[in-house]
Amino acid sequence: MKELKVTPIKDGTVIDHITPGRALKVLHILKIPESTVSVVSILMNVNGKNGKKDIVKIENRELDPKELNKIALIAPKATINIIRDYEVVKKHTVELPEEVIGLTKCSNPTCISNAREPVESRFHVICKDPVRIRCYFCEREPEDIAAGIV
Amino acid sequence: MNFKHRDIISIKDFSKEEIEYILDYARRMIPYAKAEKHTTLLKEQILATLFFEPSTRTRLSFESAMHRLGGSVIGFADPSGTSQKKGESLADTIRMADSYSDAIVIRHPQEGAARLAAEFAEVPILNAGDGAGQHPTQCLLDLFTILTEKKKIKGNNVVLLGDLKYGRTVHSLAYALSLFQANLTFVSPESLKMPKEVIHECKEFGVEPVSTSNLEKAIKEADVLYATRIQRERFPDAEEYNRVVGSYKVDNALLQQAKQDLIVMHPLPRFVEIEPEVDKTKHAVYFTQAFNGLPVRMALLSLILGSKKL
Fold this sequence. Notes:
The complex is a heterodimer of chains A (150) and B (310).
Chain A: E1 12-18, H1 23-29, E2 40-48, E3 51-59, H2 65-68, E4 79-84, E5 87-93, E6 99-101, E7 122-128, E8 131-135
Antiparallel strand pairs in A: 1-3, 1-4, 2-3, 4-5, 6-7, 7-8
Chain B: H1 16-33, E1 46-51, H2 57-68, E2 72-76, H3 90-100, E3 103-108, H4 113-120, E4 125-130, H5 136-150, E5 157-161, H6 168-179, E6 183-187, H7 196-204, E7 210-212, H8 215-219, E8 224-227, H9 238-244, H10 252-255, E9 263-265, H11 286-305
Helix pairs in contact in B: 1-5, 1-11, 2-11, 3-4, 5-6, 5-11, 6-7
C-alpha cells in the first residue's frame, strides 16, 4: 500500500519539483514562516518521476506566482500549484528573471557590493539551465549560489 | 561610432568593432602624445584621478594624456589624506568628485568599485584597475601594442605567463585576445592557474587555450610572450607568495629558443620575471608598451569628452 506521508491540502499553494535539499532555502527566500501563520508542510528527498525532489505545501494561502519566480535561482525546475477545494486551479513554472537584485550575496569577499556601500547585490543571469549568474559589480560567477542567499 | 560620455569599466562592455575604432584613433594620437603636434581639444575640461591604490604608469599617463589634450587634472595618488580615512563611503567620494570634474579615473583595491562609481556619477568613469578585477585601458594598450608590433592580432600565438589567478591584466587580455581570435597558451605555477570562468569565456569565442607549467616548450611557437609580476599585494598569505615568487624567469638563454620576431611584453612594474639583459634585445617591447598607454588614453579621453575629432 502506498504510504501517504503528508495529506493533500484543501486550499493553498504547493511548490513542487524543488531541487532536492533546497526546500528550507526556498522558504527562507519566501520569508516563511515569518510572513505567514499558515500551516506549512515540507517534504524532502521525495521520489518523483525524474528522481528526487522537495515539496512545500502552504495551507490557506495563495502565493503570487511572480513573487515565486525568485526561487528559480535555487530551484529552477519548481512548479507552483494553486489549490482550491483539493483541485489544482492554476499551475505555473517558475521563470528566472534576467537580473537578480538583493537576493544573494556575491561570494567574492573583496567585491565592492560586500563593502559598506549604499547598493544592493546585483547579478545578471547568464545561463538558465544550469543556472549561472554573474555579479554586476565584480563580474565573478559564484559557484554555490544557494550559499549566498541573504 | 559615438563614445560621448561613455563609462570605460570593463573591456567586456565593448564590441570588437568599437575596440578596433579606439585602437585606430589611438594610432592618430601618437604625434600628439610625442608632442610633435599640439591640441587644445579638452581645454577647460577637468579630469579627476582618484587613486586608492598605488600606480605609476596608469596615473601618470592619464594625467599626461589630459594635459597633452589641453585639459587639467585634480585628484589624489594616496587616499591617506582623504575623507576615506574618516570612513567615507566610495559612493560619497564619487558624488563629490562628480561635482568637481568632467570625468573620473578611479583605481581601487576592491573589485567592482568602478562599476559602483558609475552608479553614483553623472560624468563618465574610467576604470584604472579595480582590485583583481578589470583594467580596460591596460587591455586596450596591450592590444594596441600587439597590433602595432605584429600588424594584426588574429592568429598570433600569445603566451600569458605568471600570476594568472590574481593578475587582473591577464583576465581582461585573455578575453580580448579571444575576441580577436588569437591562439592562447597559459603558463603559470599550479596554484596560480587561470580561473575557470576566464577559460570558459575564451571558449565561448571558439578559442581553446592550452594550460601548461612548461615555459620552455611554450616559448618555441610563441609570437607574443606576455609576462606578469607575481603580485605580493594580492596574496591572502605570505607563505603562498613565497612558494611561487620567482617560479619563472625570462632571460636571454630562454629567448634563444624563441622565434626571431617574438615580442616580450609586460604591464610593469616587473620584479624578477624579466632579467634586465632582455631590455637590450629586439624582443623587448615593454617600454614601448608603457608609452602606448599615452596615445590610447588620449584617444579614450578625446572620444568621451571631445566635442570634435582630431
